[in-house]
Specification:
By secondary structure, the protein is an all-alpha fold. It contains 12 helices and no strands. The relative contact order is 0.15.
Length: 276
């Protein structure tokens, strides 16, 4: 008699509908806010200067970059260079600080995720929201720099609102996709850590798009973060040639990644915990 022996198993779980997944996530909003507040305050709990570091670090980085690149390599931006750099560094700092934590949040949050059910998307979402507590005071600092350096605050400053919304949505879209992938492929953590350095130099944080040419310019413009960086500069020191094209790419990346994220979490939300 032939006997077929099958080994292994396949994880299967209930597939959520999009409306139900969104509804469950909305109903868990109190948990999201609680986790975000906890993440933010725990981060600075034992620091002597506490949450002041949330403002001090980006400002210090901007000062260093502005000093180095205004004395070693002089970029002709036509505007105040420290404000130019800080306007670009703010969204990059938010993105590069929030994403590594959010991308591994489902795995890192297994202590909570394995005890009770809630949409696992809450974990990366809370990691992104936690960084908003540090980001928003820096907007005030940015506006203050405009006044101090004589840039002036005009109607274009209103663009900071949609720029911030798009920055958060782009970060969330990457966080949701990568956090789902990290459950299955634990190399995501290390690939992201290695990639962020190259990503910084390719995001036009401290140089204008007008200095780039050819293939390099194309690669920088299609970079999803470049559109966010130049959007913030358009809201403060003024737009530069090519910034609208970069912005459209950022919008496209955000929409595409949100669709992928929705499909992943809709399909695997119920079985993530079995692989933690």
């Amino acid at each position: 008699m032939d006997r077929t022996i099958e080994s292994g198993f396949e994880l299967r779980g209930e597939t959520n509908s999009f409306p139900r997944l969104i509804a469950h996530t909305w109903h868990s909003r109190d948990l999201l806010v609680m986790l975000a507040r906890k993440d933010f305050f725990v981060r600075y709990r034992r620091a002597a200067f506490g949450t002041a570091w949330a403002i001090a670090l980006p400002l210090f980085q901007a000062v260093v970059l502005a000093f180095v690149f205004s004395h070693i390599t002089k970029f002709k931006t036509g505007v105040n260079y420290p404000t130019f750099v800080f306007a670009g560094l703010l969204p990059w700092t938010f993105f590069s600080t929030a994403l590594p934590v959010a991308a591994t949040s489902i795995v890192d949050g297994q202590g909570l995720a394995t005890k009770i059910y809630f949409p696992r998307a809450i974990l990366p979402l809370s990691s992104v929201v936690a960084n908003l507590f540090a980001f928003l005071p820096n907007i005030v600092v940015l506006l203050g720099m405009e006044l101090i350096f004589g840039v002036g605050i005009g109607p274009r400053a209103l663009l900071l609102v949609p720029a911030t919304v798009l920055m958060v949505l782009l970060t969330i879209s990457f966080a949701l996709v990568l956090s789902a992938a990290h459950v299955y492929f634990r190399d995501v953590r290390y690939i992201l850590q290695a990639g962020l350095l190259a990503w910084f130099w390719a995001s036009a944080v401290f140089f204008p798009l007008t200095l780039t040419r050819g293939v390099l310019r194309t690669l920088i413009i299609i970079n999803p973060v470049t559109g966010i960086v130049t959007f913030f500069r358009a809201a403060t020191v003024g737009g530069e040639a090519g910034w609208m094209t970069a912005l459209w790419y950022s919008l496209g990346w955000t929409a595409g990644l949100l669709i992928v994220a929705g499909l992943l979490h809709r399909r695997f939300d119920r079985v993530f915990v079995d692989l933690l």
